[in-house]
Design brief:
By secondary structure, the protein is an alpha+beta fold. It is 39% helix and 21% strand. The protein folds into two domains: 3-236, ATPase, nucleotide binding domain (Nucleotidyltransferase, domain 5), CATH 3.30.420; 249-495, Nucleotidyltransferase, domain 5 (2-Layer Sandwich), CATH 3.30.420.40.
């Protein structure tokens, strides 16, 4: 039986997942590394770590599974989005990569809005200028590191540096490209207007490909390092969010993905480019050809529950905490929680937003507070979903949930009630790396389309549906939505 490999170059590790022709995960290996924060708000990483991690993970997954590399039909790539990798004409790295979580570029975001006009920027790219995106990082280098700027010949994203080392080719997928803030969302390629406005040479930008398209093959040098067969096809892949959506089967309109990890992401596939006029939710190309997606991002989702546990009930297992919360009634006896512990991105792109419990009384105990945290996170996710629906997205039929928070039956039910859709879990837990593997399977010719691959390989199991509490949650959500506008001035005075 043949195999494909999905490689995920994330912020803290590179993972390699070996997948067989039936879509089953055969083996997993990972290599960990760190990143640097040389100054406040800065976040950087040596691109060589991604390549070294890829070499180690691929060699390990081949070794532990006893897989003959001649049977590996294709490689798919994914990884952290938005990171800026600058190379000279020889392909050498000019400076450490500036990562997605780097916050130095507030002034550059303002400059980008001024250069294009806020409305025109969203019309072209589908997004407002945020510090996480790639374009503000490029503008920062242009204005602060002229010696580096003069030597730039190529601009890549993290996983595409791995591609360069693997194949020798400069290439990028359209989903990850759309996350740079340099893409024409409707045209699914680089925007001449944006590049010109920001004084970025179009020749620096790599050719773009659809997720399952082959961009090159493993070079002889890379084969020696990784143990792969020289000539193995490498497909474009996708950024981590779009690849994760492929991995859970969220590849058609009406089937949504929800990631409930430290942050919370609501990901909706669309059949045409849609954007929210104020840019409060993201709009990107999907790794699925001729599909796009909208995405809302909550910065503290399961992270809110972790904070609460560590602050109030240190050492208590999350499962025990959640089980006890089920003893509190829906609505937590009038207690609401704002989950803006790290600021927020959707629906309020506000770094000064803060968390809050509202409605506390002497009758509330730890069970109520725990449930209120779960409900507050669900309400925040609903805010993002509502923005996407207002922008023209169809309401979801099913939400495929992943991440540590979805292990709680109570939280799954709260999500179903608040979001108004069936919640399902899926048969695999390898997320983006698995999705990259499925894209490789399509590129290898095992499946005719990404949709066919996902339907064949991903098994979804419904675990919760909207229940009798759903109408009451709708009323509580309306009260929840009043809180941020009322408290925002106080947040600013406290910052």
């Amino acid at each position: 039986m043949g195999h494909v490999i999905g490689i995920d170059a994330s912020t803290t590790a590179t993972k390699a997942v070996l997948v067989d022709e039936a879509g089953a995960v055969v083996g997993i290996a990972a290599a960990e590394y760190g990143f640097d924060q040389p100054r406040p708000l800065w976040s950087e990483q040596d691109p060589g770590l991604w390549w070294d991690g890829s070499v180690a993970a691929v060699r390990e997954v081949l070794r532990t599974t006893g897989t003959d590399p001649t049977g590996v039909a294709a490689i798919g790539l994914t990884g952290q989005m938005h990171g800026l990798v600058l190379l000279d004409a020889a392909g050498d790295v000019l400076r450490p990569a500036i990562l997605w979580n780097d916050q130095r570029t507030g002034a550059e975001c303002d400059a980008i809005r001024s250069a294009l006009g806020p409305r025109r920027l969203v019309e072209i790219t589908g997004n407002d200028a945020l510090t996480g995106f790639t374009a503000p990082k490029l503008v920062w280098v242009r204005d602060h590191e002229p010696d580096v700027w003069r030597r730039v010949a190529h601009v890549l994203l993290p996983k595409d540096y791995v591609r360069l080392r693997l194949t020798g080719d400069y290439a990028m997928d359209k989903a990850d490209g759309a996350g740079t803030l340099l893409f024409d969302l409707a045209a699914r390629d680089w925007s001449p207007e944006v590049l010109a406005a920001l004084r970025i040479d179009p020749a620096w930008m790599a050719p773009t490909f659809e997720g399952p398209e082959v961009t090159g093959t493993v070079s002889a040098e890379a084969a020696t390092e990784t143990g792969l067969r020289a000539g193995t096809p490498v497909v474009a892949g996708g950024g981590d969010q779009s690849a994760n959506a492929v991995g859970v089967g969220a590849v058609v309109p009406g089937r949504m993905a929800l990631s409930l990890g430290t942050s919370g992401v609501v990901f909706a596939t669309t059949d045409r480019p849609l954007f929210e006029p104020a840019g409060r939710v993201h709009a990107f190309c999907h790794a699925v050809p001729a599909r796009w997606h909208m995405m809302s991002v909550m910065l503290s989702a399961a992270g809110s529950l972790r904070w609460f546990r560590d602050a109030v009930a240190p050492g208590v297992p999350f499962g025990d905490l959640a089980d006890a919360a089920a003893e509190a009634p829906a609505g937590s006896d009038g207690l609401l929680f704002l989950p803006y512990l790290s600021g927020e991105r959707s629906p309020y792109p506000d770094p000064l937003a803060r968390g809050a419990f509202v409605g506390l009384t002497l009758a509330h105990d730890r069970r109520h507070l725990t449930r209120a945290v779960m409900e507050g996170v669900a309400f925040g996710l609903r805010d993002g979903l509502d923005l996407m629906v207002t922008a023209g997205m169809a309401a979801p039929d099913q939400i495929r949930a992943s991440g540590g928070g979805t292990a709680s039956p109570l939280w799954r039910q709260v999500l179903a009630d608040v979001l108004g859709a069936e919640i399902a879990t899926v048969s695999t837990t390898e997320g983006a790396a698995y999705g990259a593997g499925l894209l490789a399977a399509v590129g290898a010719g095992w499946f005719p389309t990404v949709e066919a691959a996902a339907d064949a390989a991903v098994v979804a199991t419904p675990v919760a549906a909207p229940g009798p509490d759903a109408p009451r949650y709708a009323a509580w959500h309306a009260t929840y939505r009043d809180l941020y506008p009322a408290l925002s001035p106080s947040f600013r005075r406290l910052a």
